[in-house]
């Protein structure tokens, strides 16, 4: 870029790049400047150059290109003696992403700018008996309505979350709640709706992304995400990164029938006419409601424990519709986990509630956009978290729960 030699350090290896491919150098320089200005207050050229380890000449060229493309703009100078320095800010409003959470009877949609700030949202009803193509068309039309109602939106990418196992390309391998979409190239179809790149992901995985981004798991390195509603699903992040498994089926513990996640004890609460009232009554001490909630919590804890004993996480986050019960749900689950797990993790209720999946879809769309347009690393792929309360700092010093592995008393008659 510019005249004269161009040099900067490879951000991954630390090796200096001199001359070489101009396209590569431009990409590195643009990426370095964007990393600096993306989340910062307005900065001067000198400040940007110092933070990005680039010469003033190179920064001037990059800023000119980014301003021409609409990604940054010069802001009014601060009051000062003499000629004020030029300052620049990133234009988060230069693009938007759409996150969609598709459920059996409803869909949630959120539109965010390039900083992830939500600028529009809506919840729409979906008829339970609607057909596969009609459901897809209904979702598309309601998304179009949302965009039309917000003409300032410049949609650049979207992501759809749903209860399904999806491959890495956004094709649905299987969905029990919405079986008519099995085999559907959901990401491919959605990319034709608004002529922008589109992605699709499992809803529990997206909820995990959202909780790690701005929810209850902001400071957790390893955690399990539960969606507890009319169905129960799970996802996980390990080492600060989403763990999908070989074919996108990681966390599908509910498929193990012996755990009972699809059984009567769970359905007695989640499919009840008013689950919220059951939790309220249980919290107030009603014995019948307390018994129903305890059976539900025990079965739920069995599935969680199977994952906890496998990956030994810092945290378990319970989200989904039933998470609105708060401690009326968390407390009995926590008590059962203490008995079932060798090293019980902390358990928390989602701070994002029923919006987690849509927000996670927005986050994943932003990550893809950052990688494609700006060559920036994903915010949700930043590796281990640091600081914060979620990591169980005392677990290494605390005695393990040896009773979790004590064999049951023998029922065989003695000889």
- If helices are DSSP runs of H or I spanning 4 or more residues, what is the number of helices? 11
Structural class estimated from helices and strands: alpha/beta
Helical fraction equals 25-40%
Morphology: globular
Helix-strand sequence: EEHEHHEEEEEHEEEHEHEEEHHHEHEH
- What is the topology, as strand order, of the major beta sheet? 8-7-6-9-12
| Uncertain segments | 1-18, 382-386, 390-395, 410-415
- Please summarize the sheet with the most strands: 5 strands, mixed
Strand content: 15-25%
Head-to-tail CA distance between termini: 88 Å
Mean pLDDT comes to: 87
| Number of DSSP E strands | 17
Radius of gyration: 25 Å
Which key phrases capture this entry?
35% helix, 17 strands, 5-stranded mixed β-sheet, alpha/beta, disordered C terminus, 415 residues, disordered N terminus
Description:
With 415 residues, the chain is an alpha/beta fold. It has helices at residues 22-37, 45-52, 56-68, 132-148, 186-190, 203-214, 264-270, 275-283, 287-311, 327-340, 356-374; strands at residues 7-9, 16-18, 43-44, 72-75, 87-90, 96-102, 106-113, 118-125, 155-162, 165-166, 172-174, 198-202, 223-228, 232-238, 241-242, 315-319, 346-349. It starts with 6 loop residues before the first strand and ends in a 41-residue tail after the last helix.
Give a summary of the structure in a few sentences.
By secondary structure, the chain is an alpha/beta fold.
Please write out the topology.
Elements: E1 7-9, E2 16-18, H1 22-37, E3 43-44, H2 45-52, H3 56-68, E4 72-75, E5 87-90, E6 96-102, E7 106-113, E8 118-125, H4 132-148, E9 155-162, E10 165-166, E11 172-174, H5 186-190, E12 198-202, H6 203-214, E13 223-228, E14 232-238, E15 241-242, H7 264-270, H8 275-283, H9 287-311, E16 315-319, H10 327-340, E17 346-349, H11 356-374
Parallel strand pairs: 6-9, 9-12, 13-16, 16-17
Antiparallel strand pairs: 1-2, 3-5, 4-5, 6-7, 7-8, 10-11, 13-14, 14-15
Helix pairs in contact: 1-2, 1-3, 2-3, 6-11, 7-9, 8-9, 9-10
